[in-house]
Write a structure and sequence with these properties.
single chain; 323 residues; alpha/beta; six-stranded mixed β-sheet; four-stranded antiparallel β-sheet; 37% helix; elongated; binds adenosine-5'-diphosphate; binds magnesium ion
């Protein structure tokens, strides 16, 4: 990798500048830069083939980038890959559990690979099995496990070496809603321990639920970055919904604000809005000046689905507005 003059923040989270990767002619990452403060959850959101796993593989030292630089857990990716490997945990898109071992044996195997003392491994395995509600299944062969149990075990195996940075590549893909919620709870609790989490997901709700910050990856480029709230606010598509106590109020308001979003049956009027206070105030001022009473008002910010749609292709026209 090439060094650049750009400074890198010296903390124990993750910082990357201009990561590039190609496979032959195919460019997979085209300059990905990100910063994940220690002890936070970051979600890399993107459709299939966007480059999420490639990013995880680079940052976890499994493959090398063609360009760019990064620091992970306080170490330089180029200079100190061994130190990084010792500090991180990775769970892949497909659970890496051994079918022919029991749950406990899987964790103990990981403990051994991490050069932990046998007694320490035993003790941590017991604690993790308890924490992940797998104690009753500790002696069962993993081949009998459900998808949700495998993912939990996979995460437990990652945690046995007590990594300070954890990469979770699509940790809930393919899980039923209930198992997904269980995984979310387990992931949330990790951050309470001070661990830094790099999560990839195709699920907008998952990023929204878990992440402090979200970046949207599309064709190897980050097309947006911010909190879930930031991303929602940067996308057109929100509206204010006004309800009136009678039809004459609705009529007057529609005359002042436009009648496109009028619903006469419900006595409501929808007015496009960016979700900001100034817009809201302007709308209310117009009605107030005309003596029109509003009964109730609700602000609808666009949800992450709107963001995703607008950012990753299907709504190309809006893409320019949010860069
Ligand atoms: N080892 C590889 N050889 C060739 N192409 C690859 C390889 N790994 C990934 N790719 C390609 O890179 C792109 C991004 O893949 P990936 O990072 O796995 O995406 P995601 O995890 O977001 O689904 C895809 O088009 C994929 O086919
Ligand atoms: Mg992937």
């Amino acid at each position: 990798m090439k060094a650049t003059a750009e400074p890198i923040t010296p903390d124990r989270g993750i910082t990357a500048h201009g990561l590039r990767k190609s496979y032959g002619e195919k460019s997979v990452l085209e300059g990905v830069s990100l910063h994940i403060p220690e002890g936070t959850i970051f979600a890399l959101l993107g459709p299939n083939g966007a480059g999420k796993t490639t990013t995880v593989q680079i940052l976890s030292t499994l493959i090398s980038a063609d360009g760019g630089q990064a620091r992970v857990a306080g170490h330089d990716l180029d200079q100190e890959p061994d130190e990084i490997r010792a500090a991180i945990g990775v769970t892949g898109q497909f659970a890496a559990v051994d079918e022919l071992l029991t749950a406990e044996e899987n964790i103990l195997l990981m403990a051994e690979l991490s050069h932990l003392d046998r007694s320490v491994g035993k003790e941590r395995a017991a604690r993790l099995l308890r924490r992940f509600d797998l104690t009753d299944d500790a002696d069962k062969l993993v081949s009998t496990f459900s998808g949700g149990m495998r993912r939990k075990l996979d995460l437990a195996m990652t945690l046995v070496a007590e990594p300070s940075v954890i990469f979770l590549d699509e940790p809930t893909t393919g899980l039923d809603p209930r198992s997904r919620r269980t995984m979310w709870e387990l992931i949330r609790n990790l951050v309470a321990d001070g661990v830094t989490i790099f999560l990839t997901t195709q699920y907008l709700e998952e990023a929204d639920q878990l992440a402090d910050r979200i970046a949207v990856l599309d064709h190897g480029k980050l097309v947006a970055e911010g909190t879930a709230e930031d991303l929602k606010n940067r996308i057109p598509g929100g509206h204010i919904s006004l309800r009136f106590s009678d039809e004459s109020g609705l009529e007057s308001a529609a005359g002042l604000l436009g009648s496109v979003g009028r619903n006469t049956e419900e006595l409501t009027l929808q007015v496009p809005s960016d979700g900001g206070i100034p817009t809201l105030r302007a709308v209310l001022d117009v009605l107030d000046d005309a003596g029109v009473q509003v009964e109730t008002l609700t602000v609808h910010s666009p949800d992450l689905d709107d963001v995703f749609l607008a950012l990753t292709g299907q709504a190309d026209a809006q893409k320019e507005n949010v860069r």
